[in-house]
Specification:
Elements: E1 3-6, E2 9-16, E3 20-25, H1 39-42, E4 46-51, H2 68-81, E5 87-92, H3 94-105, E6 110-116, H4 124-138, H5 142-153, H6 156-161, H7 163-173, H8 178-189, E7 204-209, H9 217-227, E8 232-236, H10 243-246, H11 248-261
Helix pairs in contact: 2-3, 4-5, 4-8
Length: 268
């Protein structure tokens, strides 16, 4: 399995396909397996780079506080290790928020940015919902964590129609490594970059789920769209928070269209 030594830890990564490189940023409790609905589509045209951030999946889970700035430095170093100087960045939720911080910190390394189901600050209601997640993780209670997260991640349609998928997911919660999840949650709760959004000059597409309860389009996605100059925004109907699972065809179509507009290979 491919690992890269990044800032003193081992980061697990995968590369699929050839073409202009596109990094996919995981959700907070996700790993590279979360992009199963995207890999076959995007790898036909692009070099798809997946990796688990510190604290996630197969990557190391060091002690000490995490932050989006540390994640951004990890990503920069990983790309340098792979000999890649410039990428498109597609992220969902935590991974999209990393994309925003990466754009603010290393803008010279980005060609374009896709920000899906994300926030630039943590409002009171979101804070309380995530605090429940943190409580379940701190107790290392997989069943509590499952039921605390499930209704906030998916639309009612997905919950009704994908019961088998959700039951399989429940089994995986038993094997989660909870202490690093607490550190990831703590990093998220400190996010507050709204006032810096006007500094992002990279072409940006903001995507939101119409029925996202956790990070609703209004205000969160709209704040990002209003803050990032010349960004575009798309709301996907009848989708919850985890859009790449909930509405994979719509997600793939929107992101592919945006990437093609900002890919050198499609301008030749």
């Amino acid at each position: 399995m491919p690992f890269s030594e990044v800032n003193g830890i081992n980061i697990y990564y995968e590369i699929h396909g050839k073409g202009e490189p596109v990094v996919f940023g995981n959700g907070v409790f996700q790993n590279t397996l979360g992009w199963v609905n995207q890999i076959p589509t995007f790898s036909k045209e692009y070099q798809v780079i997946l990796y688990d951030m510190r604290g996630q999946g197969q990557s190391d889970k060091p002690e000490g506080p995490y932050s989006f700035e540390i994640h951004a430095e990890d990503q920069k170093t990983l790309l340098e290790n792979l000999g890649i100087s410039e990428v498109h960045h597609v992220g969902i939720s935590y991974g999209a928020e990393l994309g925003l911080v990466f754009a603010l910190t290393y803008p010279e390394m980005l060609k374009s940015l896709v920000v899906c189901s994300a926030v630039s600050f943590v409002g009171p209601l979101l804070n309380k919902m995530v605090q429940l997640w943190r409580y379940a993780c701190a107790r290392e209670d997989p069943e509590m964590f499952y039921f605390a997260t499930l209704p906030l991640n998916f639309s009612e349609t997905f919950l009704r129609e994908q019961t088998a998928v959700l039951e399989q997911a429940k089994e995986r919660y038993v094997h989660l490594d909870f202490p690093p999840l607490v550190r990831l949650i703590d990093a998220f709760l400190k996010l507050n970059i709204t006032d810096k959004l006007p500094q992002i000059e990279i072409p940006t597409c903001v995507i939101a789920g119409e029925k996202d309860i956790l990070k609703p389009a209004y205000p969160y996605s709209m704040v990002i769209h209003d803050g990032v100059p010349n960004s575009e925004m798309v709301i996907i109907r009848d989708s919850g928070h985890a859009i790449m699972f909930d509405k994979p065809e719509e997600f793939n179509s929107i992101v592919l269209g945006f990437l093609r507009k900002h890919s050198q290979s499609h301008k030749l």
